[in-house]
Structure formats: C-alpha cells, structure tokens
Amino acid sequence: MDSSGDDLPVSGGPALSFGFNLGRIAGAGEDSDPVLRDGRELGLVAVFDGMGGAGGTVYETPDGPRTGAYLASRVARDVVEQRLVALLDPDWNLDGAATAADLRRSLRTALQERLAELRAPASGLRSRLLRALPTTIAVAALQRRERDGRQWSCHLFWAGDSRVYAFEPGGGACQLTRDDIRDSGDAMANLREDSVVSNAVSADTDFVVHHRRTELTAPFLVMAATDGCFGYVPSPMHFEHLVLASLRDSHDTDGWSAAVQARIGAVTGDDASMAVLGIGADHDTFRALFAPRTAELERRWITPLDGLDADVREQERKLEELREARRKRRAQLWAAYKPGYERHLAPPTTEGTP
C-alpha cells in the first residue's frame, strides 16, 4: 500500500507526504495502514503494529480467520484517526494531556467492544505474555503556532515500541518517542537485545498512552514508523542513512517512497509501515537541504561501520577456511596414525576357530 495525504478540514497547502504498509504475507499483515493527513496549518501521522506474539489468538470473522494482532491495529487506527481529526483545532489549542486520556479511553472501549463482537470462548491458557487484541500506536499531531509561521507544535502520543522521528536539516534524525520496553537500553542496544514490550494498547490489560510536546521549526520531516522499518538495520545511523540516501537518489516523492520501501523490504523480517510528512519545503528542496547531512552520515558513520563489518566478514571467511583446512588435515593425520594406534585392536577370534 502506498498513499498520499488526505486534507484535514482546513485550508489546503503544499506538503510533501507519503505512507506505506509492507506486509510479509499479502492480506494478512499485522500492521495497519498508516494515518497520514496534511493541511496548511495541521498535520497528522500515525502507525499501528499489531503484536503478533502476544496477540496470536485467531478469531473467526466475516473476512475469514484473523489474528488478534491484525484486528487490534485496525481498530486502533480507526479510533485514533477519528478522535484526532475531531480534536485537532486550527486555533492551536490542542490539550495534549486531555487528548492522551481521550485516546486511552476511546481505544479501550473500542477494543473491548470488538472483542465482545468476536464472541471468542475464554481461553484456559493463562500467561502474562498473552493479550486480547494488542497493538502499539505512535502518533504525531502537528499544529502551526502562527498562521504562515515556521514554528510548529508537535504533540506525540504513543504506547509500545513504534516510534516517531523528526528529521531536521541541521541535525539529522532524532527519536521523539521513548520505547516502552522492559530493558532500559538505548536505540543501539535495543537492536541487539530485542526486549519485551512493557506497555501496549489492548482490550484486557491496563495501558498508558504517553504524551509529550516538542517544538519544531520548518523545514523539517516528521515520520511515524513501526519496528519493521528500523529494527533490522545495523545501527540507528544506518536507518537515518536509509531514509536520506533514498531521498538523495529519488527524483520525486513517489520515487523516494519506492526507494525506502525497497531498502526496508530487502532487510526486514517483519511487517513494516511508515508515514512521512514534510513541512516547509518541496521534494527538490528537501533533497538539497539534506545533501550535506547525507554526506556527513556516510563519512563519519556509515563508511567506517560498514568498513569494520566488511573486515569482520573477511576475517570470518578466513577463519572458516582455516577451520575447514584443520578438519581435512586432522583427518589425514589421523588416517596415518590410526593403524599403529589400533594395532592391538584387531577383531578377536572365536575360540576353536582356526
């Protein structure tokens, strides 16, 4: 799926936007389609990752068997889009704390109602790891501070380990949401540890919808992404480079989206969905603005890290060659030594046998 932004009910204006949902199994991906809305004074991006492990229970639906994770992400998408389109106000007075409480209440009610509709029998299996209709959410709601101004308020709402990022020409990518995971490692450590999600939206357990607000100055990019996008690269630097190198190598926004999808699809082991909104510049201008940052990424981080990885692979190849040579030589030497070593181990003769 690849979608462009739909206008919010405000005066229109130019905006760069794209979104996609890459499912590993066609028609059964547990990420929902992202939310992507843009207008002259407002913007909204959001992603939803149904949690396949915790929500692996399969329910019978009119559309066929569906996992709880699949159903949860789609219920959550509909609720978040409906509530935030209603609550976003072009007069720049979104109450973040009240909105977070509204989302929590609305999500819980909708998921409980959907679970009741499914009429699933109560499970005899009890596990802290099982959830009814579990999903992550990661949302960025943008409001311009003054009409036609460059300052934007970015309200962030999330539960789970999906993320919102900002990309700023002067400083590159920065993570705006904090992963809800049991281990307290940073983004690099999380790539290695694959920690358990500690807080997520669901129908049968309590959860928190976090809120924080940050200020951004146009031009900038804001992105919401599930972990299938960023969880299978060697480092956070590589994820930023994946996004910006795809921008550099594209001629228009559709080409940028296609390049990002191709690069993610080549490495990911999960469903992957993303929504990107650019404020304050068109595609060609963003390409020019981020060109220095892309070059810096390659010079300072990507080339050194990739060089070290190549060295490790080469040493591992040589080590494997040595191991194979050792195996063969050991077999040869044993074959030469074995006759003498086993000279008194000839098969015994049966008494009376000549």
Automatic annotation (TrEMBL):
Residue ranges that the Swiss-Prot or TrEMBL entry lists as coiled coil: 305-332
Xref: SUPFAM superfamilies: PP2C-like
GO MF terms held by the record: protein serine/threonine phosphatase activity
Xref: InterPro entries: PPM-type-like_dom_sf
Annotated keywords: Coiled coil, Hydrolase
Root EC class: hydrolase
EC number: 3.1.3.16
Signal peptide: none
This protein's name: PP2C family protein-serine/threonine phosphatase
